[in-house]
Each structure stands twice: as structure tokens, then as C-alpha cells.
Design a protein that fits this description.
transferase; 14 helices; 4-stranded antiparallel sheet; alpha+beta; MutS, DNA mismatch repair protein, domain I; about 35% helix; 3 domains; about 20% strand; single chain; DNA repair
Length: about 375
């Protein structure tokens, strides 16, 4: 790790099996049972799985059919996103008691920069413990945390002692921690990349650290310099409380495949209505509409159109989605339809805010 790097005290909070835990909290009959939020026994995709289900290999983004095959006693529960948002907002309020530098990644996880915090507490480790305790008291849910000098290490560390635990990687421990870390646990290294790294003899951070930046760039393109830096503990990305949203969308997986264009138009109307609601809530509009179609044979097609002005109304979104739907003749029955609005006016609305970089000593108490 370079001596000139600016160190911060970053906490990554990650709720444990959030959607599934909320369902178990609200319905005691589901406690200690294998549940999957989303999908159904016949079709669909698992959005989240309880830890009881994970023991049987059930994971998010897994086909419901495969999940049921892995865990025959699996219980499917319909997602309630409004309820998840409600709980997420309660958790966010707790974060803001400590710092305004909160960067939400989703409803169930966020980065917090507590280098300078509202409590005047010099220990990020104790702050993380307090936050997890308050979340438990206020919501009844468990959270895990990772604490370190930057977002990358904090994110990796939050997964070490899950569920309901935390891991601090102090400045002097960073080098050894990363060298011993299995490459598949590096944030940003997916399954395909991990397999490629294995073929190149890279199994742990120590192996990755031996490779030159040129070698990594040659084999992993633009990600090469990123891997070169993070394995050395260098990750300068700041916690950004006002992340600019780049797109907004919704999709539906149907219980039975549909081939009637009339039914498809009905579904698109419902999806457009949901997008309009989200756009109004976030006070944004967009110029590019993308239609997503997944056929019964699981092939995925997307079609997009960009217009010269911002839109946010259901009617306009629906009209363009309809135009995209009839661009080509349907080849198979359809199992999923989705609409995404991108090229948003978020930059115009939010503007660019300057963030003051906090310079701290190379070593300090975590």
C-alpha cells in the first residue's frame, strides 16, 4: 500500500437476507423456515433467499424451478417492495445520526464515511457496532458490517463474518488481508473472471499482486488497472451521498407464457404505470426507452429508442414501448417484458457538488 494514499474510516453496512428477513419478521410462521422471495414453484426468479434456504444452495437470481429442486420444502413469498422501502428508510435514519456521508447501494446496503462523524467517536469499529445494535432494536433485523480504509476493503470485509457480524481491517492489516483473500471474494471479480484468473494461476490476492499492470490490462482490459490497484489497498473512490441515477425501469415475469399481443400491451401498460410512479417519486425524466423481451426459450432481446426531449408520463412511455414491440414479429411466446428509461435528467437536476477530501494521518485508531 502506498504511503501517500489518503485513508478514511469507511463502514459498509449490509443487511442479512434483507427481503427474506423482513418477511420472516412480519410473519412469525415463516421463522426458521426456508423461504424464497419472488418467483413461484412453476417459474420466475428468486429475488432473495433466507439463510435456511441458502443451506440448500438456493440463491438470488436462481430459477425458481432449480431452487425448488434444490430445496423441495422451499416456501415462495411474493415480494412487498413498499414494505422493504419503509424498513430501509428507518435504517437510513440511523445512518444519518452518525454522518451525512451515506451512499446507498440498494435498499439493504450502504457505505458510510465516519472519518469525521456527528458523535465525535474516533472508533469506526464501535460506531459500526452501535449502528448494528440500533438497527436490531428499531427494526428487529440483523445487519453485518465491514470497516476499513476504503470502500473496496469495507465491502469485502462485510461478508467475512456474516450473518450478524462485523470485520475490521485496520490500516496495518490491509496488505496481509488482501494477500490471503481468495480471488473470488474480491469485489468486482465475478464467476467468469475468477475462472479466467484461475487459468492464469491467480488464486489469491498474493498471486494477483505478482502480476504487472501491463499483464492485467492485456488479459482483463480496462479492469486490469483496477485489479492492480485494489490488491495493493488503493481505492480512492469517495462515499458519494448523492449518487446520480442513470436509469429506472420495471419488468414482469409471467406465470404462464403469453403469445397474444393484446395481453402484452396490457402488461406494458401496467409496467409503464409503475415506471411513471417511480419517476415522479424520484422527480426525474428520461429520453431513451428500452424494451426488454425474454422469450419462452430464454433468449433475450432488447430494443431502444431515443427521443429529443425528456418524458415521464405513462402514456408516452407506453406509446414508445408499443412501437418497439411491433418493430419485429414475435418468434416465440413471451415469459418476461420490461421497460427501462435511461439518459435521465438527473445531472441537470442535481448538478455537480464538490466534495471536500478529508486528509488524515496514515495511521489512526479504528
Amino acid at each position: 500500500m502506498q504511503d501517500s494514499v489518503v485513508l478514511r474510516k469507511i463502514i459498509h453496512i449490509d443487511m442479512d437476507a434483507f427481503y427474506a428477513s423482513v418477511e420472516q419478521l412480519d410473519n412469525p410462521e415463516l421463522l426458521n423456515k426456508a423461504i424464497a422471495v419472488g418467483g413461484s414453484e412453476e417459474r420466475g426468479v428468486v429475488a432473495a433467499a433466507s439463510y435456511e434456504a441458502r443451506k440448500f444452495g438456493v440463491r438470488s437470481a436462481m430459477s425458481s424451478v432449480i431452487a425448488k429442486r434444490n430445496c423441495p420444502h422451499l416456501i415462495f413469498v411474493k415480494p412487498r417492495f413498499e414494505r422493504y422501502r419503509e424498513v430501509s428508510n428507518q435504517i437510513r435514519e440511523i445512518f444519518l445520526e452518525y454522518t451525512d456521508l451515506v451512499e446507498p447501494l440498494s435498499l439493504d446496503e450502504a457505505y458510510l464515511d465516519v472519518t469525521i462523524n456527528k458523535k465525535g467517536n474516533p472508533s469506526a469499529t464501535l460506531i459500526a457496532k452501535e449502528i448494528r445494535q440500533k438497527i436490531k432494536e428499531k427494526t428487529g433485523l440483523n445487519a453485518s458490517a465491514g470497516i476499513s480504509i476504503n470502500k473496496f476493503i469495507a465491502k469485502v470485509a462485510s461478508d467475512i463474518n456474516k450473518p450478524n457480524g462485523q470485520k475490521t481491517v485496520n490500516p496495518e492489516e490491509v496488505e496481509e488481508f488482501l494477500e490471503k483473500l481468495e480471488i473470488r471474494k474480491f469485489h468486482g471479480v465475478g464467476k467468469v473472471t475468477a475462472e479466467k484468473m484461475y487459468q492464469l494461476g491467480i488464486f489469491k490476492g498474493a498471486d494477483l499482486k505478482l502480476k504487472t499492470e501491463e499483464f492485467l490490462t492485456e488479459n482483463f482490459g480496462k479492469s486490469g488497472p483496477y485489479y492492480y490497484q485494489v490488491v495493493r489497498g488503493n481505492h480512492s473512490s469517495e462515499v458519494k451521498p448523492n449518487r446520480i441515477r442513470k436509469s429506472l425501469g420495471a419488468e414482469r415475469t409471467f406465470d404462464t407464457n403469453i403469445s397474444s399481443e393484446i395481453f402484452m400491451l396490457e402488461r406494458l401498460e401496467n409496467i409503464a404505470e409503475e415506471i411513471e410512479r417511480r419517476l415522479k417519486k424520484n422527480k426525474v425524466a428520461g429520453k431513451t426507452i428500452t424494451l426488454k423481451i425474454k422469450y419462452s426459450d430464454f433468449t433475450l432481446h432488447t430494443r431502444s429508442k431515443t427521443i429529443p426531449y425528456y418524458i415521464s408520463s405513462k402514456k408516452l412511455i407506453q406509446d414508445i414501448a408499443r412501437e418497439l414491440l411491433f418493430q419485429e414479429k414475435m418468434k416465440e411466446s413471451v415469459r418476461l417484458l420490461g421497460i427501462t428509461l435511461s439518459n435521465l435528467n438527473t445531472a441537470d437536476i442535481q448538478g455537480k457538488t464538490e466534495e471536500k477530501e478529508i486528509a488524515v494521518q496514515l495511521r489512526f485508531e479504528f
